[in-house]
Amino acid sequence: MDEITHRRVLTIALPIVLSNATVPILGAVDTGVVGQMGQAAPIGAVGIGAIIVSSLYWVFGFLRMGTTGLTGQAHGAGRPGEVTAILTRAVLTGLAGGVLIILLQLPLFMAAFRLSPATDEVEGLARGYMAIRVWSAPAAIALFGINGWLIGLERTRSVLVIQLWMNGLNVLLDLWFVLGLGWGVEGVAFATFLAEWTGLALGLWLARNAFANPAWRDWARVFDRDRLRRMVAVNTDILVRSLFLMAIFVSFLFVGSGFGDVTLAANQILVQFVEITAFALDGFAFAAEALVAQAVGGASIAHLRRSIWVASFWSGLGCLVLTLVFALAGPAIIDLMTTASDVRAEARNYLPYMLAVPLLGITSWMFDGIFIGATRTGDMRNMSILSTTLYALAAVALVPGFGNHGLWWAFLASFVFRAVTLAARYPALERATVEGAR
Fold first, then answer.
1. Is residue 390 part of a domain?
2. In whole angstroms, how far apart are CA 367 and each of 288, 312, 344, 363, 390?
3. Domain presence at residue 168
4. How many domains, in total, are found in the chain?
5. In this structure, are residues 273 and 352 in contact, taking their beta carbons and an 8 Å threshold?
6. Range of the domain at 77
7. Model confidence at 47: pLDDT above 80
8. HSE-up of 288 (CA within 13 Å, CB side)?
9. Lowest mean pLDDT across 37-51, 120-134, 189-203
10. Contact 383/436 with Cβ under 8 angstroms?
């Protein structure tokens, strides 16, 4: 097994840092483009519409995470045929999941808006946005599997190429459709629809070397009962985990919408900052996923510990840099994202809470990468349930008396709950790795 060096970690992580950073930057552009309309309702509509659609897609986020862990472990154990078969399973699962969302879109969207007390204007605009976005669900979800496969093999430059293509095209189409053609919120949705389908085509092309191995269509291997059972177990655990953690983000926006359109718009802008931070630092967690998976597949406790240490070092450095950037440039970025003076003032009021996110969230994000790589998904599932429960209790206790401030306090506390609960389960992860070496 190759040595775990700082250079190797950065080679894996930096393309992911750049790739992940473009995702919330795209959300910021979406928000900023409609923000030029000078109204709060379109900003809130894109925010709520995007969070509902993204939440439905990220129900299948297990496909990216589970595929990374399984691929890395198969690679570390020297099983190239299984590495190839995993890609086929992941793509087929993603396409099927997207079709399922399309078929169930009406009850799913209806249920989502029953949970949201948004105004009629915001809801109407959001429904138009979602009716377009949902048709790219198969492409978006299948890409989770392709990206996970590439990350497990340390091919993160390919992931960067996919994201740069998708998000670059999306930004250009945003500007054309919204500012040029005046399509408004629906223009943002059409831009994303086109970007996601072309992104899937590019991802399949970049993974084309897998199709040179006949194992990709060895259906007896692809649908092997034991391998499928393990994939289902891992992905089900991650699915439950993702649902509970997504509930935190969704409830944050939905509860915030009850404080009015201006507060909803301000929270939406700051959530873009949070996502930029989380996605950027997740690059180092993704590096941990790939390297931890290979260490577990090769049953090497030394490589496991070294992978965690080096990835965590660079993640900590990135945390400090991002906090400083948003502390200095946050107000100016807010002004770029909206021309509405009341939204600007409200977002500045809550900016200090956002600055605490990277400091409190870094440990939980790194533990996510470690546990995904080791496929200790049962622990992730159980600790996410506990953490979300604690967050809900904190919100119930704080929001009635402190309003949106209390909501932010509960949101920040959720990161601490995740870190503490996963830390309690880490010794069991090391014991399992040691046992695998025997």
1. yes
2. 9, 10, 35, 6, 18
3. yes
4. 1
5. no
6. 6-436
7. no
8. 27
9. 37-51
10. no
